Amino acid sequence: MNQHVLDAFDSPLRVDPAALMDDPHAAFAALRPEHPVIRLGEKLYLALRAQEVLSLLTDPRTVQVEGPDYVALKQIPDGAAARFLTDLFLFSNDEAHRAKRGLFARAFAHGAMRAARVQVRGVAETIVADLPRGESFDFVERMAARVPAEMIAAILGLPRSDARHFAPRVYDLARALTPVYPLPHHAAIEAAAGDLFAYVEDHLRLRLEEPGDDLLSRLAADWRANQAISFDSLVHQILGILVGGSDTTRAAFAMLVALLLERPRDWAAVRADPGLVPGAVAEAMRYEPSVGTIARFTTAPLEVGGLLVPAGVMLSVSTLSAMRDPALYADPGRFDIRRADHPRLHPVFGLGPHRCIGEMLARIEMEEGLAALASDAPDIRMEERPRMLGFGGIRQITPMRVRIR
Ligand code: HEM
Questions:
Q1: What is the total count of domains within the chain?
Q2: 349 CA to middle of ligand 1, Å?
Q3: Tell me: the pLDDT tens digits for 120-155?
Q4: CA dihedral 257, 263, 266, 270 (to 10 degrees)
Q5: Which domain does 209 fall in, by range?
C-alpha cells in the first residue's frame, strides 16, 4: 500500500495501559466496537478484534522480535540468560526458526504426545494423592505448579525427583519472558539459566551415549542424525521447552479448576462425565487465558480495521480480547464447557509459524490433571478464588486456597 493511501487512515486511540489492568475483559469489550487497534505507548500498539488478531499473526508484514534485539531492548547483561534468550527459537524468524523448531517436530507430534497420556495420568494421580486432606492449602503451589514440571520431567525422561529441584529455577528463568524484564531479579534469573543449562547438558550427553525410551533420547538421536544446530543451541531449545510450558500451564490449570469449582453444576457434570473434560479445558483457556497477548513487530506500515499502524513499531495482538469477541464466539461472556463454536485452532496458542509447539502437551497435562482431581478429590472446595493479573504476555495467577475434606 502506498503512503498516500495510508495517510487517509486515522491514528489509533491512545490508552493508558494502567486503565486496562483491573478488568481487561470489560475494558476491551468497551473499546472493541469502535477501536480495532489502540496505542499503548510511543511505539506500542495493540489489536483487539478477532479478525485482525488472527490475520496479523500470519501477515508477512509482522515479524517476531529476534533474540539479539530482545536482549538489547531489555538491556540484559551478558551471561547465560542472555545467551539463552539470544538463541531461543521463539525469538527467531524464517530459516533460523525452521532449523531450530524443526528438530522438535517429531518428538512433539500429536501422536507422540498422545502416547504420553497414560504416563501423564500416572503423574497426575500421584500429585492428587499428595494433596493435604482436612486443611486449607494453596492449590497453585501444591498442584498447579507441579503439573507442568513433573509431567515434562517424566516425558523427557528426567528423574521425577529432580523436578522439585529444577522447577523453581524454571519459574525463575521464565521471568526473563515477562513483558518488562525484571532487572532487580537478574541475579536469580542468571543463576537459573546457568544451573539449568548444566543440568540439561549433562542429561543430554548421557542420552547421546546411552539412549533410553524417552523424549530426550529421541531429541538427542534426531539431533545426531541432522546437526542443523550446535549442541549448545539444542540445550537452549530444550530449556525453552521447559520454560514455555511452565508459567503458562500452571496458571491455566489453576484457573481451569477455579472456574469449575465456582460453578458447582459444571464441576458435578465433569465429575459425572469425563467426556466433558476436553471441552472444559478449551473453554477455560478461552474465558480466562494464561497468555493474553502475542507481540510482533511491523516491517511495513499497515492498515488495521481502517486505522494506521506505522512500520518499525511493536504491534501486539490481544488474543484475550479476540476470545471475547462476539464476532468469533456466540455469547462470549458466558462460560460454557459444552461450547461448540471453538475454532479448529484455539487462538490461545497463537497462529502461524510460531503457534505453540506444546499445545497438545498442555492440553493433555490439563485434561489428565483435571480428570485425576475429579476422580480422586471430588469433594475439593474453593475458599479463595485466584485472579489472573494483567492483560499482556504470560499472565500471573494469585494464590488459590482450597480444602479437601
Ligand atoms: C496453556 C498453556 C500454554 C499456552 C497458553 C501457550 C501459549 C503459547 C503461545 C501463544 C505461543 C506463540 C508465541 C508467539 O507466537 O510469539 C507459544 C509458543 C511456544 N510454546 Fe506455548 N503455550 C502453552 C503451553 C506450552 C507447553 C506445555 C510448552 C512445552 C512444550 C510450550 C512451549 C512453547 C514453545 C517452545 C513456543 C515457541 C514456538 C515457536 O516460536 O515456534 N508451550 N505458546
A1: 1
A2: 6
A3: 999 999 999 999 999 999 999 999 999 999 999 988
A4: 30
A5: 3-404
